[in-house]
Design a protein that fits this description.
- By secondary structure, this protein is mostly helical.
- The protein has 2 domains: about 1-85 and about 125-210, no CATH class; about 225-295, no CATH class.
- It has helices spanning about 1-10, 25, 30-40, 70-75, 90-95, 105-110, 115-120, 130-160, 170-180, 195-200, 205-210, 230-240, 240-245, 250-265, 270-295, 310-315; strands at about 15-20, 165.
- The chain is globular.
- The relative contact order is 0.12.
Length: about 325
Amino acid sequence: MPLYLLAQATREHGITVIATGEGADELFWGYDLFKELVLRQQAEHDETALERLDALYPYLSAPGASRGPVWRRFFAEAGAADDPLLSHQTRAAATGAVKAFYRDEVARELIEDDSTQRLRADLPASFDGWGALERAAYLEVRTLLEPYLLAAQGDRVAMAHGVEGRYPFLDHRVFEYAARLPQERKLDAALHDKIALRELAATVLPSGIAQRPKQPYRAPAVAPFFADDSPAWIEEALAPDSLRDSGLFDDRSVAGLVRRCRSGRATGMREGMALVGILSTQLWHEQFCGAARTAYPEETAEPKVFIDMDVKSALEGVT
């Protein structure tokens, strides 16, 4: 949604082609996910390393909220140390929170459809021989950049307003150069990121920009859906009858989540992602499986032909 609105504003200013920065964080290891992986590996020998995780994601909890041991245990227990997908198991656990709200029969059907197993089966033959951060970068390209940032979040929302993106960091020469850089030119021992890229930026940009920490843009996950001026369709989509009609989610489980959201107690990332996932799926189902299906007249022995009255009048004089 933030990119959709940005593309809309861009087009309103008469701009139809833009240069955008997708790829820089994947190629030069700018995401906090890379720092998180380093700290998780260090925690195997030094548990205090997990305490540094608190500073990585300040935007994922309510102001003043205490993280503590539960937060750190989530990272420590998300995947075995020798798991090829170790770097992304935290994301799998977070996005998988929505599974707790499926109806039992839906959950049973989906047990065999394990997306992480499909990903494992499609890894390059040499994957196990790569460094942990190199594997994380590959997985980031495969699971986030390629199918989401460039497609769903990028091209679709931009072209919805007739805006076309250009991606300089994904030029094959830049890609190849970044892949050859040693690790310390991307992420150093002090967890400073995008080293080579920041050095280049410092030659043409003010230091306040070249050295600026990453600033993620995020749409609030819970609060806007339960504000006093929230539209009525939100309550309708999450109502027990609507949930039973779609047949995907357990209405009692969702009701518990909605109560926590409405009371302001749902401040965690996983609850927010679950709410948005449920609400989005309900709207998708209504659009493509519910209301849209009933919009057509029932079939009869003799098909009905509907002619616009203005067209009918114009045709009456035609022989």
